[in-house]
From TrEMBL:
One of its GO terms (biological process) is regulation of gene expression. Residues 247-411 form the JmjC domain. Residues 584-682 are annotated as: Disordered. Gene3D superfamilies: Cupin (2.60.120.650). The lineage of its organism: Eukaryota, Viridiplantae, Streptophyta, Embryophyta, Tracheophyta. It comes from the Eukaryota. The gene is LOC106757791. GO terms for cellular component: chromatin; nucleus. This is Lysine-specific demethylase JMJ16 isoform X3. Residues 30-71 form the JmjN domain. SMART domains: JmjC, JmjN. Residues 625-678 have a biased composition (Polar residues). GO terms for molecular function: histone H3K4me/H3K4me2/H3K4me3 demethylase activity.
Amino acid sequence: MRGCPSCINCVKVTARWHPKDAIREDLEEAPIFHPTEEEFKDTLTYIASLRSKAETYGICRIVPPTCWKPPCFLQREHVWEKSEFVAQIQRIDGHQVRRIDGHQEIMASACENTKNKRKRDVEVALGSQLCKRNTSTPNNHNVEECDCESEPGPKFSLKTFKEYADVFKNQYFNYNDKKKFIGSNIKLAIPEQSEPSVENIEGEYGRIVQNPSEEIEVLCCNKLEAGVFSSGFPIVSDPVAANAYPEYLKSGWNLNNILSGSLLSFESPDVSCNLDPNVSVGMCFSAVNWKVEEHHLYSLSYIHLGEPKVWYSVPGRFAVNFETIWKKYLPDLHAGKHHMHDTMEMQLSCSILKAEGIPVYRCVQYPREFVLVFPRVYHSGFYCGFNCSESVSFAPLEWLLHGQNAVDLYREQRKKTLFSYDKLLLGAANEAVRAQWETGLCMKSTSSDSLTYKGAYIKNEFLTKAFNTRIQSEILKRKFLTSSLVSQRMDEKFYATCRRECSICLCDLHLSAVGCSCSNDKFACLDHAKHFCSCTWSNKIFFYRYEISELNVLRQALDGKLSAVFKWAKEYLGLTLNSAASKRSKPRSENVGGSTFPAQDLHTKKSISQTAANKSKEKPLQLQEILNASKTKQNEEVSQVSQTSGDTHRSYGTHSKTKTDLLQSSCASGTKGMSSVGTKVDTEMDGSKVTISKKGDPKASKVSSVTNLRYLSFLQEHVLLDVSSDSTSTSSSDSEVA
């Protein structure tokens, strides 16, 4: 009972603990990981390392190193005592459906010994208001439906909610206790008694939700926006926190930062802000119903303070089976609800799931620990007492294939997407090209930043597979449209007012769309091009962001083809090599191929940082000096190789001469373009001869391990760095680089 004439937040608990009737399933525990301090530094890399070990369970627990001691900013006075939220009322008795005596009889919301269980009106006191709810509607499978949706309740601060939660738990488990109320003028005298264990609470929770003897209502609040209410972690907008705890402000385990390191960072701020961290507050028996994350994203949860939370998980590979069982046992609840995979008001008990052959795993999360949920995993749980946690959804590279499956499922269910999958995929591909540009052409090392981890994008198997699959699908769908419709490239106005989506299936139209002259705001995806309006086919227009030929260049760049990397980076990312040269103030003795240059040779690279005019005048002299200085070193190494390679020395001589002529020609002309250099990067090994690919030569690049590394590295370090991106000089180079 909650509320009285003098106090709306007082509580009187008449129900009592029934330890002899406990219902607790024997479930296998999810894995627990203890990262070292070094492993813990790189958040997303560590999470990626857990996939092969924990994804089969759907969930895992991460215990941080002992050095991890972030402050809890929810306990600051202005948040703890003054920030208020509206609690939600949860009716949990009979909240789960279960088997009875081996039969498929289902009970929900009461058991046989509950007085007047079939028809009753429950009056709930909320201050001066009385709310009535009816739970008497039976369905065709003897399922008594319970109003398990949360109802708005009273307002609390974190301080007063904790007081309420503590009194409830003490009264419930201290069955000989006297009456107690929460009130400003009432002194609480809670007797000292040992706390019930997690197993005790779990057994009692199972009894309440499956075989109750009383009506039980609890309070919770599952979605407080951290950016509005408060995050438990330090944030940039709080200068005091930023200065006092810089290591936790920048940490990848600070849930406010993890989005910036995931694929969701490629979305616009107004979209990604909808996926910001949420703060959850609960009390003993507060339930988290079966749910799966939007777009099948990963989820990371952290308990700032309070008591443990018990999780249950069904691995993602059993998601379809889970949904089938849910429809089987609760057909009426499923009727008319196409989006049941997001959240479920009724819970299936673990006993039903196990009986149907679906594995369920258990995880107990304690304060200052993380729980990681993998894609498309159904998960539920409950709190063992007052609990304040924070969680966030995110999308690492490993999510991409799951993301495409989610898009297909949403299209089938005609459900609106939260963000554009294609935009994230293209953003990841561009980042991969940028990383290859920096490491392969600009000779930079990959960042060790725990959030961006650019090195992971280079030739990433998940990214490459997801991109190839998506482009292949796009090619098949465009094959007919491009030959029968007028085509038009998307411009800025296409996305000027809002994110475009199919008027039929609601899928995002970032990559391509079909419009009609009858409407400026109505579009369709390629699957529904014929169905979104009744106009003739000739009135429709095909819109595209990139041509297939352009997407193929990006695909080649992802595979590591250097000429494709250069072309995409220059034309679509606006990157320039001469701008990178100005940043290279120190000589580097090691290049991307692993070969080295003598220290005295590298001193000539200091001149790269001079003004543009001086570079233009001194460029031929610099290149000639480098060529002469490195030629002796290269010939010595090739001579060693020739002892085991027959006539490799003769091959290198031809190659070296061609290279000398090429560089001298480039120096003499002093041109900025790539027409004489870019076409010489791709070479071919034919027997004992090395040939240089000419313009339009489609042959693949296959060169010797010695000559190619030194030649390519030499070109990258000393020639390509001075190439201008002036639009006047790119016309001829672009075709050759491609």
